[in-house]
Design a protein that fits this description.
heterodimer; B: 309 residues; mainly alpha
Chain lengths: 292, 309
């Protein structure tokens, strides 16, 4: 592998990692606070991609408006799901919450078929980001560079929000002891609703940003949700920087795997998770749960 | 030992099923064969979920291993059925033992994700090992013994195998071993305190579940005369999980009821509409919102209501 090839693959791996991090960080946030494993997260990602397609292609709005529309659209959908149904399930077993989110997947997949049909769509690169930057020995596409900037920005913003603000302190308290927080006068249900909405909006943003890179087809949600699980699990459930690390590992393994072992690219992420879980059962940055 | 009326009811059900081909409907016979296979598949998973309290997301792996092994031994190697079928069960059990060794070191969601990872690995092997498994074209043209090629004789074969397997599972689940599994489910820590090696118990349950899942897969492959990589995909694992939960995981017969209900519903729904996912989604919402203990739970609640008045 030449230096040019190596740099290009590392760069594509990084861009993929950052795009995946944006999506997976939402899943991670929801799990970290609500302890709900949201199977519908991949479907939210798909809706994000479809919404930006409709907004930019059909209505002709600019790319940025499309991204915001995806975020807003998913926020509204998630808030409705949380307030109408999910809020009744927090006291039930994890298995029931998981089944519930699976039901949402099934209902939304049919809804997507009704709204957008089963055709394949594509979203072009936004103007100004369709070119490439020449480094002399390699050409780096601008859009992937853009993803490499946005990913860390979102990571830092989330870290600041959760670790450095009053609201973030309440959110972290909610992961520790819901009842105590409620007794202290915090409106815990509203915290839960906000977290679920925010996490889901991240899936929408991730989907919108992925739209220029991937083909928009029914079923695009299914692989993403498994990949997000892999990222969140290898990083350590509920750990923001763990997810960041997990996304990086995932991005590089998939990108280099596609080049070096093209036959096994579908299985490589699972091998990665296997290796991590056998060596560090609680993920790279996770901690063993008490009493287990 | 089972209570006398349970035994009589089960025997009556088997006899009734055995009389089914006399009705002369090929459709009904085929449908019942499928339901029997799925019932065994769901029951095998419930050893792990309902009895041991470990949710596996990768049970399709053992179904596929059993199915592919039996198909390949029968067709590629021309082994007789009497050896191929047990070999398929043994191999599925062996793989489950190896995978289980790693999985039972974890609990809850981590356990579930590790089972999923291993299952996707099995899927990857079935997909890529094209010379042996047929890859994404599937493994077709399974060479069945002549006496089983007729759909009625295959139905009787399935009925006999599934009946014996379910009886064996019943004995396992109600033995001292099965009761220990329930203790592990109810309180892992306390069960450890009284001297039970809980990890080993969960490992054993994992292996039992995998073996019987493999048997169901072998029956499935021979029935369809083919195995396909979809049978190893995670959606198949999700479907059998739903069967278990729909029927009711805390009862022995629940998964049988769940498998029958879900499969029949799917077949009938597909005759009228392509929106099976919507129907399944609504069924799941009903389970989650009002039927957390499944159809069996509903039956016992209705019984309790009648008992009072």
């Amino acid at each position: 592998m030449t230096l040019t090839m190596f740099t290009l693959n590392a760069f594509y791996g990084l861009a993929l990692a950052m795009n995946m991090f944006i999506i997976a960080s939402g899943l991670n946030l929801i799990f970290g606070v609500l302890r709900v494993i949201n199977f519908a997260h991949g479907m939210f990602y798909m809706f994000g991609a479809y919404i930006i397609f409709t907004v930019t292609k059909t209505w002709g709005a600019p790319f940025l408006v499309g991204v915001l529309a995806s975020a807003a659209g998913l926020a509204v959908i998630a808030l409705a799901i949380e307030r109408l149904l999910l809020k009744n399930l927090y006291d039930k077993e994890h298995l029931m919450q998981l089944l519930f989110t699976f039901a949402i997947v099934l209902l939304m997949s049919d809804a997507a078929k009704m709204i957008w049909g089963t055709d394949q769509y594509s979203v072009g690169y936004p103007p100004g980001l369709g070119g490439a930057i020449n480094l002399g020995f390699v050409l780096l596409p601008q859009y992937q560079l853009f993803l490499c900037v946005v990913g860390p920005l979102i990571a830092i913003a989330m870290w600041l929000l959760v670790d450095r603000t009053r609201w973030g302190r309440i959110v972290r308290a909610a992961t520790q002891d819901r009842e105590m927080l409620s007794a202290l006068g915090v409106n815990v249900p509203m915290v839960y609703a906000a977290v679920f909405t925010m996490g889901s909006a991240l899936a929408g943003i991730g989907g919108a940003l992925a739209a220029p890179r991937v083909a928009l087809v029914p079923g695009m949600d299914a692989t993403i949700i498994n990949e997000c699980f892999i990222i969140v699990i290898i990083g350590g459930l509920g750990n923001l920087w763990g997810s960041f690390l997990g996304a990086l590992a995932f991005g590089f393994v998939v990108q280099f795997g596609t080049v070096l072992a093209p036959n096994w690219q579908d299985v490589l992420p699972y091998l990665l998770m296997l290796a991590v879980l056998i060596v560090r059962p609680w993920g790279l940055l996770g901690r063993p749960e008490a009493g287990r | 030992m089972p209570q006398r009326n349970q035994l009589i009811a089960s025997a009556a059900l088997v006899v009734l099923l055995a009389l089914l081909p006399l009705a002369g409907s090929r459709y009904a016979v085929d449908l019942t064969t499928e339901v029997l296979i799925y019932a065994l598949f769901a029951l095998s998973l419930n050893v792990l979920i309902g009895f041991t309290g470990n949710v596996s997301f990768g049970h399709a792996a053992y179904f596929a291993i059993g199915g592919y092994t039996c198909a390949i031994l029968l067709t590629t190697y021309r082994w007789p059925l009497a050896i191929s079928l047990p070999a398929a069960v043994v191999l599925a059990g062996l793989v489950a033992a190896v995978v289980g060794y790693f999985c039972v070191r974890l609990t809850q969601i981590y356990f579930a994700m590790l089972t999923l990872a291993f299952a996707m690995l099995v899927w990857g092997v079935a997909f890529k090992w094209k010379e042996v498994t047929g890859g994404d074209d599937g493994f077709t043209g399974i060479n069945l013994p002549a006496m089983l090629t007729n759909h009625v004789s295959y139905f009787y074969f399935t009925l006999a195998v599934v009946t014996v397997a379910i009886a064996a599972l019943w004995v396992i689940c109600h033995s001292a071993f099965g009761l220990t599994l329930v203790a592990v489910r109810e309180n892992n820590v306390r069960t450890g305190f009284i001297g039970v090696d809980t990890r080993r118990m969960r490992w054993a349950a994992f292996t039992v579940a995998g073996s019987f899942g493999g048997l169901a897969g072998a029956l499935f492959g021979m029935y369809h005369r083919g195995m396909y990589i979809e049978n190893a995909f995670w959606t198949e694992s999700a479907q059998v999980l739903i069967m278990v939960l729909l029927g009711g995981m805390y009862s022995f017969v629940g998964p049988i009821l769940g498998a029958a209900t879900l499969h029949l519903l799917q077949v009938f729904t597909n005759q009228y509409t392509t929106y099976w996912p919507t129907v399944l989604g609504l069924i799941l919402l009903v389970i989650v919102m009002v039927l957390p203990d499944g159809l069996i739970g509903l039956v016992s609640r209705v019984k309790a209501r009648w008992g009072k008045t």
